[in-house]
């Protein structure tokens, strides 16, 4: 996973890079006419490994494929499995449809709240790398 960005700040421990996160259809020629095209600015912290960059430099921020798969697992696959598991368990114990549905809605809420509280620990597991782009 790679994103182009611009260095916005440099500290002894981190380099701050502003990237423009785009939805899949943002690159479409009709994106300016479409209400679903979405773009967000994000600031990514990259560990300062001595890469010679200055504020304003264009760079490429890279996340290892292994980390990308882990992020996909944590944010999409595991919550889906938990929802299905809650549906199966509540149906198996004989709960009403209302209780089953409410449990299926409550499980991902609790899961994402837990992820939020563990965000600092998870942040250490996802390492971004920086490559300077060279304009010829």
UniProtKB/TrEMBL annotation:
InterPro entries: SigmaE_reg_RseC_MucC (IPR007359). Keywords: Membrane, Transmembrane, Transmembrane helix. This is Positive regulator of sigma(E), RseC/MucC. Coiled coil: none annotated. The keyword Amino-acid biosynthesis does not apply. PANTHER family: PROTEIN RSEC. The keyword Lipoprotein does not apply. Pfam families: RseC_MucC. The chain crosses the membrane at residues 71-92, 98-118.
């Amino acid at each position: 996973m790679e994103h182009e960005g611009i260095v916005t700040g440099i500290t002894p421990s981190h380099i701050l890079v502003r990237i423009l996160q785009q939805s899949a259809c943002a690159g479409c020629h009709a994106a300016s006419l479409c209400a679903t095209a979405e773009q967000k600015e994000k600031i990514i912290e990259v560990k300062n490994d001595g890469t010679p960059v200055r504020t304003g430099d264009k760079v490429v921020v890279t996340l290892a494929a292994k980390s990308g798969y882990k992020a996909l697992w944590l944010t999409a696959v595991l919550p889906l499995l938990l929802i299905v598991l809650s549906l199966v368990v509540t149906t198996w114990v004989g709960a009403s449809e209302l209780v089953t549905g409410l449990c299926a809605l409550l499980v991902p809420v609790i899961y994402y709240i837990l992820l939020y509280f563990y965000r600092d620990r998870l942040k250490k597991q996802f390492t971004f790398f920086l490559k300077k782009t060279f304009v010829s």
